[in-house]
Amino acid sequence: MLIAPVPALPEIRLYAAHPASGLWRLTHPEGRAAEPEEETEADEDGPEPQPPYWAYAWAGGAVLARYILDRPESVAGFRVLDLGAGSGLVGIAAAKAGASEVIASEIDRNGVAALGLNAAANGVTITVVGEDITAGPPPPVDVVVAGDLFYGQDLADRVIPFLDRCLAAGINVLIGDPGRAYLPRSRLRLLAEYQVRDVGEVGDVGMKPSGVFSFEPEQARGELRSSP
Length: 228
Fold this sequence. Notes:
Blueprint: E1 2-6, E2 9-16, H1 36-45, H2 59-70, E3 79-83, H3 89-96, E4 101-105, H4 109-121, E5 127-129, E6 143-147, H5 153-168, E7 172-177, E8 188-197, E9 207-215, H6 218-226
Parallel strand pairs: 3-4, 3-6, 4-5, 6-7
Antiparallel strand pairs: 1-2, 7-9, 8-9
Helix pairs in contact: 2-3
């Protein structure tokens, strides 16, 4: 992998996918690197598969990281959980912005390794939890940041109840998202909007407006809609 500044986030450098990175080997169904003969078959049978999701900076993570760096008071001095951290982009931004502690949850073992490399490359300390925490209570933190977690129904169905438990525990929740299909729009209050590059895109073609939102209690949103 190459290490390079993140588009629109020159303060942060990440190890990222490139055509010769060979990261597609990590998508082997048995979770191991492909054998040489398997690599040959892959080359002959068709185009190289897409590398793992954590090898890119997704738009929702990029917009949330940009917001945090521009407004360090959103996390400074607070304990922060980066939920579904992927590359660790948002957690790294929180650490750079002065968070007192950053915990990153990531279920992909290769993503966990990449997250550790990225944290070290940026000179920050992040505690990594390599398991799905959405079924249980939230950890003792002050802020949860969730970048681009609403691209699939199954994931959204796990994340939203977890975020509700975070709100019930008095934890602030910040979401970054470019408008994925399962974004809980009725529960969100827009805080900021930026133009950022989406996953896998290059140049200005892939730039799209993405938002940073506060996740609100369902009752509060209902009161807001009914207010004169």
